[in-house]
Write a structure and sequence with these properties.
This protein is mostly helical. The chain has one domain. Helices cover 48% and strands 5% of the residues. The chain has 9 helices and 5 strands. Strands 3-4-5 form a 3-stranded antiparallel β-sheet. It has a two-stranded antiparallel sheet with strand order 1-2. A hairpin with a 3-residue loop joins strand 3 and strand 4. Helix 1 crosses helix 4 and helix 7 packs antiparallel against helix 8. The protein starts with 32 loop residues before the first helix and ends with a strand. Bound molecules: FE2/S2 (inorganic) cluster. FE2/S2 (inorganic) cluster (FES) binds next to helix 4, helix 5 and helix 7.
């Protein structure tokens, strides 16, 4: 009979140090897949969004194609240089470069300061640490108390801005039912804008700052029944925040791709009118 004393003993090394010991981890699983995936998707998104924001064309499908579709990267289109029909009026006349650069700071700031994305990119890009039980690549840790990371604390204000943009993109999705020259209708483009707005709302409503805003700081839920109800509704969404973060990130880029392909004439936006 084999006793505990006879069993082969696996030495356990505890207490890895910051700055990376010679053996960074004892883990044998493929812990690196998640950081590699995160780096790949985020880098691809940033590269695509940067290109789409600077290219300054094919962001609107208008009356010539019996559609009213605008890319989320360019909405609201507020400058005098916007494609005719894509904006409510020449609100900002002094801005002469891409109108996307004027507004993208808000949704990008919201994502950049998101609590989930911080974890993702601190781990994947900064290796601080890259995964559980894998040593940190840095010798010290100051949290988010110093420049520039203390700017992460303005996340709640980007959350408020995000709500404004979600409202605008929801209006865009409703306006997409308009098919100039044909009346009202529904197309693949309408569905794409609707799904995009829905995912962005799910991302915002599952935000940690949103949950805290609705139910945080309450000492006694029985004394705040409405806030308690809202908090209970948001909590299951909050548990899926990571999923909504990725889905909305990928889909917002796909929405731009779809509008771009239709606007450029590469594909037709199939649909019908009532
Ligand atoms: S925590 Fe992710 S959007 Fe607020």
């Amino acid at each position: 009979m084999t006793t505990l004393e006879d069993a082969k003993v696996t030495p356990v090394v505890l207490g890895g140090v910051r700055g990376g010991p010679s053996v960074p981890t004892l883990r044998k699983d493929r812990w690196w897949i998640q950081p590699v995936f995160t780096v790949s998707v985020l880098a691809a998104f940033v590269a695509y969004a940067t290109w789409a924001a600077f290219v300054n064309n094919n962001y609107f499908v208008g009356a010539a194609q019996h559609r009213d579709l605008i890319s989320p990267f360019y909405s609201p289109c507020l400058t005098a240089t916007c494609v005719p029909g894509s904006h409510p009026g020449s609100i900002i006349t002094w801005w002469t470069i891409s109108p996307a650069l004027l507004i993208l700071i808000f949704p990008l700031g919201f994502r950049l300061t998101c609590y989930y994305y911080r974890k993702a990119y601190y781990r994947s890009f900064w290796w601080a640490p890259p995964a559980c039980a894998v040593s940190d690549a840095h010798g010290s840790y100051s949290g988010e108390s110093k420049f520039p990371l203390f700017f992460q604390n303005i996340h709640r204000y980007f959350f408020y801005a995000g709500l404004v943009f979600n409202t605008i993109l929801t209006i865009d999705a409703i306006v997409a039912f308009r098919q100039p020259g044909d009346g009202l209708g529904f197309s693949v483009g309408t569905a794409v804008l609707l799904i995009n707005a829905t995912l962005l709302w799910l991302y915002s409503l599952s935000c940690h700052a949103c949950r805290h805003l609705c139910g945080g700081g309450v000492k006694q839920f029985s004394a705040a029944p409405i806030r308690h109800r809202i908090w209970k509704t948001l909590t299951p969404l909050n548990a899926k925040h990571m999923v909504f973060a990725w889905m909305s990130l990928v889909f917002v880029a796909l929405t731009d791709v779809y509008v771009r392909l239709v606007a450029s004439g590469a594909i037709h936006d199939y649909g019908f009118h009532f």
